[in-house]
Amino acid sequence: MVRIAPQRVSVADPDIIKHVLGSHTYRKTPSYDMPEGIEANAFSTRSPEISTQRRRQIGPAFSHRNLADMQDKIFAATVLSLQEKLDAKLAEAADGKGYAMVNIYSWFSLIALDTIGILAFGHHFHALKNDAHELVPLLNRMRVLNYIASENLVQLLAGVDTTSSGLTWTLLLLLHNPHILRRVVSEVRSEFPPGHVISFSDCRQQLPYLAAVITESLRIMPPAPGILPRLAPADGVRLGGCFLPAGTWICCAIGALHMNPSVFPQPSVFDPERFLGEKKSPNMLAFSTGVRACIGKNLALVELHVVLSNLLLRYDVRMAKSESGKEWQDAESDVLAGKVPDIPRKTHMTMNPTQPERDCLVVLSHAQS
Ligand code: HEM
To answer: CB of 169 closer than 6 A to ligand 1?
Structure first.
């Protein structure tokens, strides 16, 4: 535990974090309040009663059972629209090149937006199909802005950037670690024939290495690495040997926890083996934990698994050269160490690449083997 301001501490200890996030004793700080004029929602509310009520109302929409019922729609927004767009682009490029260059961060953002469109608004935005990058003009055009309740808004805010960040960093980590990419591609292609559309339950039963890759990616590049601040209760509290007076901000630093070497040895090495087989991940808290844990975790995991597995089954993927001409895919000897790409990123709630148009350009072609 580190004091980071007169009345604030930051914690990277898994037991303290799980204790603080585990109950309503430690409430969210006022920093979660929505701007004036926008009603509190499941994310922003500081009231345990409202939180419990909203989670009860919204939670079932993200249960595995409901997501299984929605699978066809989720597929339409993700896997199928990605394939349609990519196949068209590859057909256009059939001038002997047979490949397409794509800003994958942008495409993943549009896929995540289309998914939330279907689930939260009951409407397919076709954002990927139409290259609709600007959310507000898009919603304006669709004349739905007046109907956006605070709860829908939070699903857009909480569910789009996080999921696209997770998809992007996982693919970039794979592309910067060819030995890991080869292993996951070989797992996917040995388990499923070309043309098969891989479902989430296929992934869960047959792709353990992909699951470990995704978990490790969420550990090393958590899409929402934020400080998750909670208030010390009215009588103060003793934690980690320190007394914290009432109102102290206890910041549950997920990003720091994931880099804590006593929890994850050699934390800056991208190593999916950490989560392979029976190895559980109780301290991988990318989705937070406890009473205010992520409501959309199941949906995000479905998107991560089905998008990546189907992409790797159907297409060969490699990094494009950056504008500076640097070969991102370095010599094999460099990358066997589980390298995290040195890509500039910014964190404002979510952690995203600063220059995706430069650093997230990937080259795709139809799978050769
Ligand atoms: C990879 C994707 C995602 C990650 C890493 C992620 C991560 C998180 C984290 C760390 C929190 C806790 C934030 C805090 O306490 O300050 C959170 C809360 C939340 N997330 Fe997610 N999230 C993801 C996707 C989604 C999706 C797809 C949705 C909904 C469509 C969603 C909806 C929410 C909501 C409503 C909360 C607030 C829960 C509460 O306070 O009771 N998230 N998420």
So the answer is: no
